[in-house]
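An instance follows:
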Amino acid sequence: MVAVAASACPTGRDRHSTLVVMPADPADATPDSFASEVLTIETAGHVATLWLDRPKRLNALGPDFWTDLPRAMDALGAATDIRVVVIAARGPHFSVGLDLKAVSAPGGMLDGGGGDGSIPPPSMATRGRRARTEILRLQASITSVATCPKPVIAAVHGYCIGGGVDLAAACDIRVASADATFSVRETRMAMVADLGSLQRLPRIIGKGHLSELAYTGRDITAERAAQIGLVNDLAPDAEGVLALAHDLAAAIAANSPLAVQGTKAVLTAGEDRSVADGLDYVATWNAAALSSDDLTEAMVAFMEKRPPQFTGR
């Protein structure tokens, strides 16, 4: 078992991020160099499971989570033996969302100002600037999941609320247990969702479904989530959804990692491009990738009527 470490700053961003990306510590180059109070990594073959591991707090997303998650994703993204990542959760729920106690504490994002001991208390402009900086930091943490070069699968059970939905939306594939409950709940808390759901979910479930969820803040069942395309498939319970996620991961990991990661890169690049631009992009990508050892192995294995053994070279 490998644990995930705390870090001082988030890393990784997508095309739309404006954050400065700080380099990862060289010592954090592999998953087994990490330790965390709230996240754990387990590996089996080419699949890594990143556990949300704060069950007593229902996996509320507190300070350690936001600093540890980007380092975890950096380590998993850089590990050449890992081809797929599954994000799952210990305890009865995937995540109840943002740890409101932590963000409301003195100096926290929702602190009214002056709670950090400043004399005189900070101005409205200073408090606004600090809040924006903190929001951008949290956004970058979630974005580290989206920008991981490996496919990421969310295995959701129990509550997936607020920030939990942000996290799931940043994954490539989502599966859920029959007891899962989803909610973009921020409007019920007098807030606007700001960690990615409003930006990523239109591409997953469409603007109409998202508008309903975000405006009302209602909870929806796993069955409804499947109907609108928020999750790909359902399993009976938490154990079943983890098995389902690992089955998907194994099927993905059996393919050439060069081809799978190339496919993710091309899909991501095509999101804001025309069809013609997307075709040009993939032509450039494959011009280099078609000379891989994996392609040769695929052809030889087909002729020899055996499963291919891909190496990622």
Notes: The longest strand covers residues 39-44. Residues 146 and 170 are 5 Å apart (CA to CA). The two ends are 27 Å apart (CA to CA).
